[in-house]
Amino acid sequence: MTGTNASPTNIGIAIVGGGLASLRAAETLRRAGYRDPVTILSEEPHASYTRPPLSKTALKEGPNVAQLAFPRRPDVDDVNWMVNTRVESADLDATTLRTESGAVYGFNGLIAATGVRSRQLPIPGPQEGRYVLRTVEDAARIHSLLKPGVNIVVVGAGFIGCEVAATVRAADCNVAVVAADPEAMIRPLGAQVGASIRERHESKEVQFYLGRGLKRYLGVDSITGVELSDGTTLKADFVIEAVGSQCNVEWLAGNGLDLTDGVLVDGHLVADHPTPVVAIGDVARFPNALFDTVPRRIEHWQVAGDTGRHGALSLLAAMGQRDFGPKVSLMPYFWSDQGDLKLQSFGAPNLADRMELLEGDLSGEAAMGYYQGERLVAVVLFGLQRTAVKYRGLVSDAQVVAATIV
Amino acid sequence: MKVHVDMDLCQNYGQCVFAAPAVFQLDDDGELVYEPNPDDSTHDVVAEAIDACPMQAIFLKEKVQS
């Protein structure tokens, strides 16, 4: 491919990206008996660490990457971690990767696990004072600015926006949440549940400015405020932007893969290419047989681990080293800590067309059923941890029933 | 095999219960209770529970093998 280097160094199975999914994939490859080299190439300077605390305790107390790191099992001691290594491109026909520094490596199988990055919108005005939250370095930067009385504007009212708002408010900062959506958490959970979550934050003096876009940032060299689309101005010492994510797929361009909204893969997480390639974690767009055949990305921590394990076995199958197992059928799970509120979700509330209160009270502890027609596709809990086993079972059973009817 | 849960980290999300119900349970108040000395036969499911814990609060002390 390079013309000058006929046989680049072979790194065995290449796992591009260094998050949770990559770690689980590497462990699974070893546990399945794969003994050839396994190499993880990660642009981050650390091995895998757990990200969810970055919007919660680690943001409040200051992140410690040693504490956030996943325990390293002995069976992955011989996995080669190439940190600070950004893969710039892949040539799937030639089975080579090129890094940002120009190094070229050959591989036997490829695991795409590059995840997502924080989306940033083009906003006019000063750019100094714009922050996003994805990595431990991001969390450390924001943590260093948290002082009582500081004015913070959080852009975005989804999970990260609401979690961050609760965390910085608990650090006695003044917090305003701005979002174009008409209600907090409306896209994952719907307006009614979103309103209840917003009211909990408002009771802690978090202010919400919803249904309004950002017009520009105010200030000379650095941000001192924001102007909203309706002309409202808010004071801001800095801004935390949590307006969704963008898939890290550019390095796979030019190989004929479908890269619209992540890497499209089949029910085994295998990409449509003669070279063995799977995608796992946030970047994988796959059908989940538990619900239907529509490929979707699922940005949940638990799904990263599940697809990491599954994808590793599928890659070995695509390499002819074992048979394919069953297709991916997983119960999506997420949790969210927002101040006193402990929220959990089993299933896929985004597939629902209506919500019904199953138990409790939306202003206190509650169980909410999410239905697609008559089919229960998710249960979301406010507190009520002791009911988790029961409701997860109900969601699981409902999919079995639905499959039988179809 | 010895299992230890850091109860300062634990938020009773119960993911360990799904992975290893013989070792981890939520009581009637939704608080985690667990068997600190489970049988070695539960090793694999305990490993799953460790992986699944959102708070990464579960730790395993295995017998040192020579």
Describe this structure in words.
The complex is a heterodimer of chains A (406) and B (66). Chain A is α/β, with parallel strands linked by helices and 406 residues long. Chain A has nine helices and 27 strands. Chain A has helices spanning 20-31, 57-61, 65-68, 136-143, 159-170, 186-189, 191-202, 301-318, 388-405; strands at 9-10, 13-16, 38-41, 80-82, 87-91, 96-99, 104-106, 109-112, 116-118, 130-131, 151-155, 174-179, 207-210, 214-218, 225-228, 233-235, 238-241, 245-247, 263-264, 277-279, 284-287, 295-296, 333-338, 341-347, 354-360, 366-372, 375-382. Chain A has a five-stranded parallel beta sheet with strand order 4-3-2-8-20, covered by helices on one side. A five-stranded parallel beta sheet of chain A has the order 10-17-11-12-13. In chain A, a hairpin with a 2-residue loop joins strand 26 and strand 27. Chain A is globular. The N and C termini of chain A lie far apart (49 Å). The model of chain A has no long low-confidence stretch (mean pLDDT 96). By secondary structure, chain B is α+β, with helices and mostly antiparallel strands. Helix content of chain B is 23%, strand content 21%. Chain B contains two helices and four strands. Chain B has helices at residues 15-19, 43-52; strands spanning 2-5, 24-26, 32-34, 58-61. In chain B, the strands form two sheets. Chain B has a two-stranded antiparallel sheet with strand order 1-4. A two-stranded antiparallel ribbon of chain B has the order 2-3. Chain B is globular, with a radius of gyration of 11 Å. Chains A and B meet through helix 8, strand 23 and helix 9 of A and helix 1 and helix 2 of B.
